[in-house]
Design a protein that fits this description.
Keywords: S-adenosyl-L-methionine. The chain has a domain at about 25-80 and about 105-145: YaeB-like (Elongation Factor Tu (Ef-tu), domain 3), CATH 2.40.30. Helices cover about 0% and strands about 30% of the residues. The protein contains no helices and 9 strands. It has strands at about 10-15, 30, 50-55, 70-75, 85-90, 95-100, 110-120, 125-130, 135-145. The structure holds S-adenosylmethionine.
Length: about 160
């Protein structure tokens, strides 16, 4: 998914060894209405269509307590992205920005994140609104909204 010839004006790519250092464990898959990248929103909206986070059964008990949150954070693997661009031209107009100054799916580790509205949980499937990824995108992680979350671990001494 990287092609040095397939660049927009002034974009810059680097040649990389195939990535093999970190091993992530996908915990399920995301079901959305979008089959083609051109149809996906650039960023999800909380009033967007209902999507599903379908967890592998082994993780169902890991959802205990999540129903207390209206908003949750979802991390996913943008598996169809190239990963070698260091400068990108979002508008294809010759103006480029560094990859780390963008939320483009094209990045060395194509992790997408969205804050989504948790509509309901049906067994191991979470119904949410606010996603922007293709149908079948691998699911990496789910966390409560950091603003609504109160740490459940004891306070740490001498840490401010
Ligand atoms: N909300 C996430 C973030 O900010 O980290 C992702 C934003 S990214 C701009 C969303 C775009 O990624 C979509 O509009 C679509 O073009 C692209 N995309 C969605 N699913 C993808 C996938 N599985 N692989 C590669 N690109 C994907």
């Amino acid at each position: 998914m990287s092609d040095l010839a397939d660049l927009r004006p002034n974009e810059e790519a680097v040649e990389l060894e195939p990535a093999s250092d970190a091993t992530l464990r996908f915990i399920g898959a995301i079901r959305t209405p979008w089959r083609d990248r051109k149809d996906c929103p650039r960023q999800g909206r909380l009033d967007g269509p209902e999507c599903q986070l379908v967890l592998d059964p082994v993780w169902h008990n890991a959802l205990a307590g999540l129903e207390d949150y209206d908003t949750i954070e979802v991390l996913y693997w943008l598996d169809q992205s190239r990963r070698d661009l260091i400068r990108q031209s979002p508008r294809s107009d010759g103006q480029t920005f560094g990859t780390f100054a963008l939320r483009s799916p094209v990045r060395p580790n194509p992790i997408g994140t969205s804050m989504v509205k948790l509509v309901r949980i049906e067994k191991g499937t979470l119904i949410v609104r606010g996603l922007d990824c293709l149908d079948g995108t691998p699911l990496l992680d789910i966390k409560p909204d950091r603003c609504a979350f109160t740490p459940k671990a004891p306070d740490k001494a001498n840490v401010y």
